[in-house]
């Protein structure tokens, strides 16, 4: 059996197409939308028109048996800009929530509504984190109570840090249905457009990824039809029964995060690579004492380390993406490894890029300061750096490390 790390022709064509879109449409708009701190609807609309934003394209990425199409796509778009990249790909997390827990009928009904169409693009939100339940999924307080008389679920709670929260056409909400079971007593629900009781009074002003809308979402007696329970009530009842009997039953929210971690890692790599390329170009042009600063070992070695770390992180992401797509168990926490490494590299590489550019790097004349702000979140969301370490430590030791 032959072995190769070469990308296929299809992968190279995908990479080049997305790189071209990022170069033409995203980069020229990045500084403006970062300053405005608003959702870049014109760029999302353009992505929808060329077939980049929509379930058909995402389904094509997911269908790739190598698992590499999705990380390749994310790396290129986030190379363009982190905030706009998240505005385009933020819907994917909600779709992943539907995909991981929903029935085929639910996928057919709700996923198209997450995206809208080329003439009227929409976004979707995945609402899991809470003010007191971020990494600690078991501490979730949002409740869902079944009303048998009307075949409806009634949701009450407060969700925090929801990408596209409040402006989404479809909200996917994680809620507790059996408090005694902790994280195993949770389920995911679709909240259809225009459902009364869901509100988002204001958006969150963030350090980075400013072009991506983030907000708290409040649910006050939100009533959704029984068909909005992802997976259906029969499947939920069976899962809860197994959990009560002591059987294994994982959290739907954690399954969604596991699906997304290599993809999130690829986003971080895209930002890191963009910063590295800016630093490399600057170092070749900026002269001191009559020669380019790249001729100094201190600069040259920094650039060498940046490139090495970025390539190493990408290989971890590609391995995890391949394993996830082919249902190879993450026996050593490979999904978390990829996100842990990529997040660290992104924050470090963007900080090094600022250092290479010196005072210029600290100004908004160059994009590396924005890249550094965008990169920091990758040590925090989708599981903090410490949570990724904990997942890997538990996996390699076989012990429940608290």
UniProtKB/TrEMBL annotation:
<dbReference type="InterPro" id="IPR046373">
    <property type="entry name" value="Acyl-CoA_Oxase/DH_mid-dom_sf"/>
</dbReference>
<dbReference type="InterPro" id="IPR009100">
    <property type="entry name" value="AcylCoA_DH/oxidase_NM_dom_sf"/>
</dbReference>
<feature type="domain" description="Acyl-CoA dehydrogenase/oxidase N-terminal">
    <location>
        <begin position="8"/>
        <end position="114"/>
    </location>
</feature>
<dbReference type="InterPro" id="IPR009075">
    <property type="entry name" value="AcylCo_DH/oxidase_C"/>
</dbReference>
<dbReference type="Pfam" id="PF02771">
    <property type="entry name" value="Acyl-CoA_dh_N"/>
</dbReference>
<dbReference type="GO" id="GO:0003995">
    <property type="term" value="F:acyl-CoA dehydrogenase activity"/>
</dbReference>
<dbReference type="InterPro" id="IPR006089">
    <property type="entry name" value="Acyl-CoA_DH_CS"/>
</dbReference>
<feature type="domain" description="Acyl-CoA dehydrogenase/oxidase C-terminal">
    <location>
        <begin position="252"/>
        <end position="396"/>
    </location>
</feature>
<keyword id="KW-0285">Flavoprotein</keyword>
<keyword id="KW-0274">FAD</keyword>
<comment type="similarity">
    <text>Belongs to the acyl-CoA dehydrogenase family.</text>
</comment>
<dbReference type="InterPro" id="IPR037069">
    <property type="entry name" value="AcylCoA_DH/ox_N_sf"/>
</dbReference>
<dbReference type="InterPro" id="IPR006091">
    <property type="entry name" value="Acyl-CoA_Oxase/DH_mid-dom"/>
</dbReference>
<keyword id="KW-0560">Oxidoreductase</keyword>
<dbReference type="Pfam" id="PF00441">
    <property type="entry name" value="Acyl-CoA_dh_1"/>
</dbReference>
<dbReference type="Pfam" id="PF02770">
    <property type="entry name" value="Acyl-CoA_dh_M"/>
</dbReference>
<protein>
    <submittedName>
        <fullName>Alkylation response protein AidB-like acyl-CoA dehydrogenase</fullName>
    </submittedName>
</protein>
<dbReference type="GO" id="GO:0050660">
    <property type="term" value="F:flavin adenine dinucleotide binding"/>
</dbReference>
<feature type="domain" description="Acyl-CoA oxidase/dehydrogenase middle">
    <location>
        <begin position="125"/>
        <end position="222"/>
    </location>
</feature>
<dbReference type="InterPro" id="IPR036250">
    <property type="entry name" value="AcylCo_DH-like_C"/>
</dbReference>
<dbReference type="InterPro" id="IPR013786">
    <property type="entry name" value="AcylCoA_DH/ox_N"/>
</dbReference>
